[in-house]
From TrEMBL:
This is MarR family transcriptional regulator. Keywords: Plasmid. Residues 9-68 form the LexA repressor DNA-binding domain. It comes from Bradyrhizobium barranii.
Length: 94
């Protein structure tokens, strides 16, 4: 579970990244923080802190002031559980 640059993410970060990727694949747009909160059953500050951490570590990118602007920067094939879900990582999300 590592980025091409060699940076590693934790198991928990991997779950968030996989959820964001899967949600975008299924719905054609990235999730809102409220969607992530409902899925993981955590508080809004917990979700926000994780998003900030993922962005600071270079795993995602967001556009300031633009809702649902999360873009995954990690190669999809390095994300956990996507193979188990049967999602083809070669298909573009956009």
């Amino acid at each position: 579970m590592s980025q091409k640059s060699g940076a590693r993410f934790t198991e928990k970060q991997g779950h968030y990244l996989a959820f964001i990727h899967t949600y975008a694949y299924m719905f054609g747009r990235p999730p809102a923080e409220a969607d992530i909160q409902r899925h993981f059953r955590v508080s809004p500050p917990s979700v926000h802190q994780m998003i900030v951490t993922l962005e600071r570590n270079g795993f995602i990118r967001r556009q300031p002031g633009v809702p649902r602007s999360i873009e995954i920067l990690v190669p999809p094939e390095s994300l956990p559980i996507l193979e188990w879900l049967g999602i083809k990582t070669s298909k573009s999300l956009w």
